[in-house]
Write a structure and sequence with these properties.
Blueprint lengths: L1 E7 L1 H13 L5 E5 L2 E6 L4 H14 L14 H4 L1 H19 L3 H8 L1 E2 H5 L5 H4 L7 H22 L1 H22 L5 E2 L3 H21 L3 H20 L6 H21 L6 H24 L1
Antiparallel strand pairs: 1-3, 2-3, 4-5
Helix pairs in contact: 4-8, 8-9, 8-10, 9-10, 9-12, 9-13, 10-11, 10-12
Length: 288
């Protein structure tokens, strides 16, 4: 670790640390004589300087102004709220239809049909829920865990990774079960988001020199959360587990290979890919 920024006030140190973390660069804020300093791993020093340089050029400080963090809690979780509202809208629309069960049958994760080639079900099933309690749990998970992923990686990249983890989780779950297995719900993707966060935090710990013990603690916390929230009597344990396993390499890969957060144009492209994949899956189901 080397000291890259020093003699910062508390607000500056918090802002710089948040910007670096959002770019996937591990860092430590340390109080010292004269204010605060930020330490980063030697290998990421140049990337950190470039990231903060761009941040300062985009957010010039006028004399007398007090620096504040660019991201605020509500903004961080806005994408999670938006997805939760999407889940609610689909649930209300299906419930108000003339034949709600037909939607479940046509778009749910039917293992036999998925393995028979109807891969679209791995995506469409994520938006369907059995009842209000099932929906409420996944809305909360989308806001809390999905929003956190979006805050770190950007909404476009984050939700594309979450959608892919949900798809892969449902596909693996269908392959692992017999032909009679059937499930619905966003929880496969929610646990993918939990795993993405674990992967991101584990890589950040290694970058900041906190060691493998810290990594094991992070993975242990993720597994404990999976066991606590994902193994109730009515839960599809397999879908939760496979969603979690699909999310881990994506979070870890992002932390390892993305030196900085994807810019707005890239976020838009990733978000458009996710939305298009979701839409085409529903269209494919309607055309069956």
């Amino acid at each position: 670790m080397i000291t890259l920024f020093s003699q910062l006030n508390r607000e500056e140190a918090h802002s710089f640390s948040l910007v670096l973390s959002s770019a996937g660069i591990g860092n430590r804020v340390i109080a010292c004589q004269g204010g605060y300093r930020i330490d980063v791993p030697q290998a990421f020093a140049e990337a950190a300087r470039d990231t903060i340089g761009r941040y300062q050029s985009e957010n010039p400080i006028i004399e007398g102004d007090v620096p504040v963090p660019r991201s605020r809690p509500f903004q961080n979780y806005f994408s999670g709220v938006a997805v939760a509202l999407l889940l609610l809208t689909v649930y209300l629309a299906v419930s108000a239809s003339a034949a709600p069960d037909d939607y479940i049958t046509t778009f749910g994760a039917d293992a036999r049909r998925i393995m028979g080639g109807e891969r679209y079900r791995c995506v469409t099933a994520l938006l369907l829920h059995a009842d209000a309690a099932h929906l409420a749990g996944n809305m909360a998970g989308s806001i809390l865990f999905g929003g956190a992923v979006g805050a770190i990686t950007g909404s476009g990249v984050g939700w594309l990774m979450i959608l892919v983890s949900g798809f892969m989780g449902n596909l693996a779950n269908a392959a692992a079960h017999d032909s009679g297995h059937f499930s619905v719900g966003a929880s496969t993707a929610v646990f993918g988001a939990v795993a993405i966060l674990c992967g991101l935090q584990a890589v950040s710990s290694l970058k900041t020199g906190k060691g493998w013990k810290r990594v094991l603690v992070i993975f242990g916390a993720g597994v404990a959360l999976l066991a606590f929230l994902g193994t109730s009597a009515r839960s599809d344990v397999g879908a939760h587990l496979f969603g979690f396993l699909a999310g881990l390499p994506m979070g870890g890969g992002y932390g390892l290979w993305m030196g900085r957060r994807v810019e707005k144009k890239g976020q838009f492209v990733c978000g458009a890919i996710a939305a298009t994949g979701l839409l085409l899956s529903w269209v494919q189901g309607l055309l069956r």
